[in-house]
Structure formats: structure tokens, C-alpha cells
């Protein structure tokens, strides 16, 4: 009996998984189909001439332009980008908190569904498309970038905040209400303290993403480092472009560090 | 946080932390002020007549969306192109990521088991490799796309290469992290018994980590789809490029159609990816 069971188990291990085969075939078709559809002609990249040309192009980015005049210009754009990312994230956090209250189902399921739909809509349009729209609404410049970041990020944060609120323990707020507190103080002193560390850590995490986004939103005219990079690359100023790219990397590293420090300080206290 | 601070000032009698909260609020305002200046935070510009007219005209032309058969055919072709860019980019990224992961995973490092011949070289190689990975994924894909558009011309090739490079670096890093965080005992035993890296990966690490790796890859494909639309804005083909053209010509009807198709595409990819990952779990 037991040997029979073992035998059938062995059998099952050896049997070819048709589902997996089907999935593999589907994947292979998708990949081959994609390459065939695009007819990229990537093979032209594998000739010696093309490799040499590409290498020459990439090497033309070095050395970066480090003249003090250009560094000053870059620093100014970097500050603008930093400000866009920080203000955009802050606006988004505030807006997300407002939307998270109805989205967590506090005011009934109709409002919950409606706000969730709005959050999904905000979230599913990428920052760059928001920026292209906001440039029309607010004119060229960093303010358009700030609004674009705020729009997309409030969709993302709103959903995360709503989920945090839904999962927060209800006992503290319930106790306050039973002791005679009205709903607003009960929320502020009973529910909010439980979720604030989570809110902060989500917001800081989004800030790290947004500094990278803010640096490239300038491509559609939303100011900062991106606008500079787009400009320099259009004029084939590779060395200047290299300086701007390095500034982007440094800025991102700086924000990562600052965010890690703030997170340690704020969420442990 | 700020809401709490403001309201706590009103109920100061009851809040023992009011003073420190108020101080924090003032400091936050002082830090925020220059940021607002630098970002040219000026909400009134939203209501300037010039911008109101431009935006109003543009949004007004959103309705009705352009549903002419000819344009829909364009959109259809661009949508397929976008999916194809994401898929090709991901498969190239995967090809780049596999060897990098093999070389970069600590649990597969033979040099780490004990001092053997060539451990010095291997340590140097590790540092170089990590640096390469940081460089690959540090520069955003949009910047790579812009650079490649300059080098290869307009079209999907730039997008595919940009995705391959950034996502290759990203996948390699995350794959290594997944492999390290799973149970590495079996791989170590295999390596100590003298097996090579490939065997240790296939029989030691993958059986525990495969489903997580596939699920992360599917998630990244979804991200690649979104990224390929965005890269179109700098000329890397697909829906993004079409949208960029429509917006530059202020053709709201076309932009609206593309925006709707795009949101549907993202929602669909979201659902497909979630279903696939659920099936794997």
C-alpha cells in the first residue's frame, strides 16, 4: 500500500506539466512576436562599425563640464528639482490624507468606491503625462512639475493611506468615543497616532522616487535638471549633459540618505 | 502630522506635547519656505487668463474623443508597439540580468566558501560589478532613451535598449536579493561538495526562490509597459510618441482617445499581472 503510494507520487513528479508547457509556449510566442513586430534591426548594432560609433558617442560625454559657471547653473537647477520633489510630495501627502478618509470607508461605501476610482485615475496616469498637461495649465516651469508629482503621488499615497487606516486598530478611537469624545478628536488622538509612522515612511519612500522623477519631468518643460539635460542633449553638448546626469545621481543619493535619516528619527520617536 | 499639530494648538490645555509640536511646526514652515520659492510655487498662475484659456481650449477639445476609424487604427498599432517594446525590453533585460545575478549573488560565490586560488581577483571583480550595476540602474530609463534616440534615431529601438539596460541592472539586483533572502543552505552544501555555480543555482536556490522571481519579473513587465509609454514622449515609439504629437498640435480629441486607451492598457496589465502572480503563489 505504502509502496504503491510512493510509486504514484514518483509518477506525479515525473509527469510533464502541461500547464507549464503551455505557459512557456505562450511566453515564447509573445517574445518572438514582439521582436518580429518591431523589426528593430538590432543586428545592425553588432557590426564593428556600429559598436565603434556607439562607443565613440558614449565616450564623447566625458569629461563632464566642471567650469565654475556651469557648475553654478547646475546647482541652481538641482535646488529647483529638490524643491519640486519635496513640495510635490508634501502636497501629495496632504491631499492623500484628505482622500484617504473617504477611501477607507469612513463615510459609507458609495463614497469609498467613488474616491477609490479617483485615486486609481490619478495613479494610472504617469507623472510625465501629468506634467505635459500641467505645463498647459500652469505654464512652463517648476510649478507645473510640482503639480504633476502631486497629482500622481496623491493617487499612490491615497491608496496606501486608506489601506493603513482600514487596518488600524479601532479600540483606541472607540474608547475615546465611549468616554465622550467627538469623532474628530477621537480620530486625531485615537487612530492617527497609530498610522502616522506608516504614513511618514510611505511618504519618505515616495520622496525618494519623486526626486528621480522630478529630475526628468523637465523633459516636457517642467524646469529643473531635466529641462537642462533636454536642452544640452538637443544641442549635442554631451559634456554639459554629463555634468547634469552626474548632478541627478548625486541628488538622488543625497535624498536617499536624508530620507533614511528622517525615517530613523521620525518613525522611532 | 501637520493636521495633528494645528489642531493640538487649539486644545492646548489637554495636550502635554503641544509645545514641542508647535516648535516642530514652526521649524517645518521655515524649511518649507525656501522650497516653495525655489519651486516657484504660485497657485495663482493656474487662474491666469492666458493659462485658463489654453487649458480650457485644450480640455474642451478633449470632447468628443477622436473615434475616427483611421485614427483608431493608428492607436491600435501604437498600442501593440508599446506592448512589444515592453516585452522585448524585458526579455533583453532578463538576458542581461541572468549572468549578472550569477556573478553577483553572494550565496553562489565560490570564493566566499574559503580562500582558494584567485579570491583576490574575484573580490576586485565583485566591486567592479556592483559599480556597473549601480551605473546601469542609477540613470533613469528616460535619460537612456533620450541618449539612444540621439544615437539611433527616433523609433522603438531606443526604448527597447533603454529598458534593457536599466531593467537589466534592476532585475540583477533584485534577483540577487531574492536568492540571498531564501534558504541558501542547499546551495552552500552543493558548492562545498564541488558543484559549479550553475548547478548550485538550479538545484540549490531556484527550487525555493523561483516563484518569487517569476512574480517579480511579471511585476516588472507591468512597470516596463508604463515606462515604454512614457519613453515615447522623447521619441522612443509607441503610444507615448503618438500622444506627444497630439499634445504638441493641441489636438485634444486625439489626446483624449490615447489617454483612455492608455489607462485601459495599464488597468489590463495590472489585472493580468495580478492574476499571474496569484496563480504562481
Poorly predicted residue ranges of chain A: 1-7
Strand content of chain A: under 5%
Number of helix segments of chain A?
11
Order of helices and strands of chain B: HHHHHHHHHHH
What percent of residues of chain A adopt helix (DSSP H or I)? Answer: over 70%
3D architecture notes:
- The complex is a heterodimer of chains A (269) and B (281).
- Chain A is mainly alpha-helical and 269 residues long.
- Chain A has two domains: 2-59, no CATH class; 68-268, MetI-like (MetI-like fold), CATH 1.10.3720.
- Helix content of chain A is 82%, strand content 0%.
- Chain A has eleven helices and no strands.
- Chain A has helices at 2-14, 18-38, 48-59, 68-103, 109-124, 127-138, 142-167, 171-178, 183-217, 224-234, 238-268.
- In chain A, helix 4 (68-103) packs antiparallel against helix 5 (109-124), helix 4 packs antiparallel against helix 9 and helix 9 (183-217) runs antiparallel to helix 11 (238-268).
- Chain A is globular and about 80 Å long.
- Chain A starts with a helix and ends with a helix.
- The relative contact order of chain A is 0.12.
- Chain B is mainly alpha-helical.
- Chain B folds into two domains: 2-60, no CATH class; 69-280, Orthogonal Bundle (MetI-like fold).
- The chains are: A mainly alpha (269), B mainly alpha (281).
- At the A-B interface, helix 2, helix 3, helix 4, helix 5 and helix 6 of A face helix 1, helix 2, helix 3, helix 4 and helix 6 of B.
Amino acid at each position: 500500500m505504502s509502496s504503491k503510494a510512493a510509486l504514484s507520487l514518483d509518477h506525479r513528479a515525473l509527469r510533464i506539466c502541461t500547464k507549464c508547457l503551455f505557459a512557456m509556449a505562450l511566453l515564447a510566442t509573445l517574445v518572438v512576436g514582439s521582436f518580429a513586430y518591431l523589426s528593430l534591426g538590432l543586428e545592425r548594432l553588432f557590426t564593428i562599425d556600429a559598436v565603434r560609433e556607439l562607443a565613440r558617442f558614449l565616450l564623447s560625454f566625458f569629461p563632464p563640464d566642471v567650469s565654475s559657471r556651469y557648475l553654478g547653473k547646475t546647482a541652481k537647477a538641482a535646488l529647483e528639482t529638490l524643491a519640486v520633489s519635496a513640495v510635490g510630495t508634501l502636497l501629495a501627502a496632504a491631499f492623500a490624507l484628505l482622500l484617504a478618509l473617504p477611501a477607507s470607508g469612513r463615510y459609507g461605501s458609495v463614497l469609498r468606491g467613488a474616491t477609490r476610482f479617483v485615486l486609481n485615475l490619478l495613479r494610472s496616469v504617469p507623472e510625465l503625462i501629468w506634467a505635459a498637461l500641467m505645463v498647459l495649465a500652469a505654464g512652463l516651469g517648476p510649478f507645473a512639475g510640482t503639480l504633476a508629482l502631486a497629482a500622481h503621488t496623491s493617487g499612490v499615497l491615497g491608496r496606501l493611506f486608506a489601506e493603513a487606516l482600514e487596518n488600524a486598530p479601532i479600540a483606541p478611537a472607540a474608547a475615546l468615543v465611549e468616554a465622550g469624545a467627538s469623532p474628530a478628536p477621537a480620530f486625531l488622538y485615537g487612530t492617527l497616532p497609530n498610522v502616522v509612522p506608516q504614513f511618514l515612511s510611505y511618504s519618505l519612500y515616495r520622496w525618494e522616487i519623486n526626486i528621480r522623477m522630478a529630475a526628468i519631468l523637465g523633459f516636457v518643460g517642467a524646469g529643473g535638471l531635466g529641462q537642462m539635460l533636454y536642452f544640452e542633449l538637443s544641442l549635442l553638448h554631451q559634456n554639459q549633459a554629463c555634468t547634469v546626469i552626474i548632478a541627478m545621481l548625486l541628488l538622488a543619493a543625497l535624498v536617499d540618505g536624508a530620507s533614511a535619516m528622517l525615517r530613523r528619527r521620525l518613525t522611532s520617536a | 502630522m501637520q493636521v495633528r499639530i494645528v489642531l493640538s494648538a487649539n486644545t492646548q490645555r489637554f495636550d502635554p506635547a503641544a509645545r514641542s509640536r508647535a516648535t516642530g511646526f514652526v521649524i517645518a514652515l521655515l524649511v518649507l519656505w525656501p522650497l516653495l520659492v525655489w519651486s516657484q510655487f504660485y497657485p495663482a498662475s493656474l487662474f491666469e487668463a492666458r493659462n485658463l484659456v489654453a487649458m480650457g481650449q485644450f480640455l474642451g477639445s478633449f470632447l468628443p474623443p477622436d473615434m475616427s476609424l483611421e485614427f483608431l487604427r493608428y492607436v491600435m498599432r501604437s498600442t501593440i508597439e508599446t506592448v512589444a517594446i515592453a516585452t522585448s525590453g524585458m526579455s533583453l533585460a532578463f538576458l542581461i540580468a541572468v549572468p549578472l545575478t550569477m556573478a553577483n549573488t553572494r550565496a553562489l560565490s565560490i570564493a566566499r566558501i574559503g580562500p582558494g586560488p584567485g579570491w583576490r581577483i574575484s573580490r576586485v571583480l565583485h566591486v567592479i560589478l556592483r559599480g556597473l550595476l549601480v551605473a546601469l540602474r542609477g540613470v533613469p530609463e528616460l535619460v537612456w532613451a533620450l541618449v539612444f534616440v540621439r544615437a539611433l534615431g527616433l523609433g522603438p529601438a531606443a526604448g527597447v535598449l533603454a529598458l534593457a539596460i536599466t531593467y537589466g541592472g534592476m532585475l540583477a539586483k533584485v534577483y540577487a536579493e531574492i536568492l540571498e533572502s531564501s534558504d541558501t543552505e542547499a546551495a552552500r552544501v552543493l558548492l562545498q561538495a564541488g558543484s559549479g555555480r550553475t548547478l548550485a543555482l538550479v538545484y540549490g536556490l531556484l527550487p525555493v526562490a523561483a516563484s518569487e522571481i517569476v512574480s517579480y519579473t511579471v511585476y516588472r513587465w507591468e512597470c516596463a509597459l508604463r515606462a515604454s509609454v512614457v519613453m515615447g514622449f522623447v521619441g522612443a515609439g509607441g503610444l507615448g510618441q503618438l500622444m506627444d504629437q497630439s499634445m504638441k498640435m493641441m489636438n485634444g480629441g486625439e489626446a483624449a482617445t490615447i489617454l483612455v486607451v492608455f489607462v485601459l492598457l495599464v488597468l489590463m496589465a495590472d489585472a493580468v499581472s495580478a492574476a499571474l502572480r496569484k496563480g504562481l503563489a
